[in-house]
Amino acid sequence: AECARYAGLVDFFPARGESAREAKAICAACPVQRECLDYALQSKAAYGVWGGLTERERHRMNRDRRRTERRVRL
């Protein structure tokens, strides 16, 4: 994973209001980005940038998936 190469140099766990831009840029070039995102979604990672998404973006993605699944079932 690309993040391992930048440990201590880039903040992958920015505090609320801090930019995640640098971490997301590194994730964009990572060969295991999808697997990382899948892990974060399955483990319900509460903090940090995982697979190129912040916790807020992952929460939104999960919410949208649940809504879509409900519509498909109806």
Q: Can you summarize this structure?
A:
By secondary structure, the protein is mostly helical. 57% of the residues lie in helices and 0% in strands.
How would you state the average pLDDT, rounded?
A: 94
Helix-strand string: HHHH
The secondary-structure class comes to mainly alpha
H/I helix tally:
4
Which residues form runs of ≥5 with pLDDT under 50? none
Q: Give the CA-based shape.
A: elongated
Helix content: 55-70%
User: What is Rg?
Assistant: 14 Å
Helices, strands, pairings?
Blueprint (H helix, E strand, L loop, with lengths): L1 H4 L15 H8 L4 H11 L11 H19 L1
Give structural notes.
The chain has helices at 2-5, 21-28, 33-43, 55-73. It is mainly α and 74 residues long. The N and C termini lie far apart (40 Å). It is built from 4 helices and no strands. The mean pLDDT is 94.
Keywords:
mainly alpha; 4 helices
